[in-house]
Amino acid sequence: MADDQDSSRWPAVEFERRPWQVSDTYTSRARRRLHQGDYRACVPARIADVDLTLPAQLIAESEDALREIVRFDQYASVQLGSSVELAPMSSILLRTESSASSQIENLTVGARALALAELGSSTTRNASIVSANVRAMEAALEVGSSIDASSVLAMHHALMEPNGDSQPGRWRAEQVWIGGSDIGPHRAAFVPPHHDRLPDALDDLFDFAARSDLPVIPHVAVTHAQFETLHPFADGNGRTGRAIIHGMLRRAEVTERVTVPL
After folding, report:
1. Which of 44, 116, 152, 177 fits a disulfide with 191 by CB distance 3.0 to 4.6 angstroms?
2. Number of domains in the chain
């Protein structure tokens, strides 16, 4: 009985100690003292072959949500006619989702500014970033037949390159952290894995994403959660993660013609 319970338990994230060297440049002595010595970085769980055991009620609710997404996509296809007639609605939904994704990273923009950015006439940085997120979502749908390293890198490149990011479409080669200080990770709310753990962790993630034996919504949700835990890019992880969600829904043939705002 104990063995059965252990095999169905979701593996926990662990942590390891890593050394940290504080730069003396523009940093006071008092602040350096707060960021001396080792810090604790996440060691991600391996999930590729783990049994995803969920309560019956949660599975039922996820199936209800799945049916609503499918029904909405079918409604758009049947009731709104040909692809030409559907294009304006698809465009609106795509931009709604892209704006929502950007707001997660504290980027807000009005409809007029976003429209100008789409025309290449934007005067605000946020509008340009959200416009780039639209292109990232389009890239996600174009590569939706698979979620693997090349497709995720393509999403990130589409998202970050237009705004002058120094590492578009490249995995990070540095430690990142969420919250705290820009001096070091010691007081961060969460420290993702050290970059030397990313190759194995990403292979494991993509193996999990490729599975076909899981309920769609939980499969997508766990893939997204693991991706954000890894935080494999120096910037743009939140927006790329939401693009992955829609790529997986397209691959699972849940959506065919519209981008459903989630």
Report:
1. 177
2. 1
The amino acid sitting at 21 is: Q
In a domain, 37, yes or no: no
On the question of pLDDT at 88 being above 50, the answer is no
Task: Using the predicted structure, report yes or no on whether residue 85 has a pLDDT greater than 50.
Answer: no
Q: Which domain holds residue 135?
A: 52-251
How confident is the model at residue 60, as a pLDDT? 97
Report the percent of the chain where pLDDT is more than 90: 44
- Amino acid identity, position 143: V
CATH of the domain at 222: 1.10.3290.10
Identify the burial level of 130 via C-beta atoms within 10 angstroms of its C-beta, where 0-12 means exposed, 13-18 middle and 19 or more buried: buried
- Residue 165, classed as helix, strand or coil, is coil
Per DSSP, the residues of 22-38 read: ---TT--HHHHHTT-S-
Nearest to 88 by CA among 260, 258, 206: 258
Is position 167 within any domain?
yes
Pair of tokens at residue 61: 């609710």
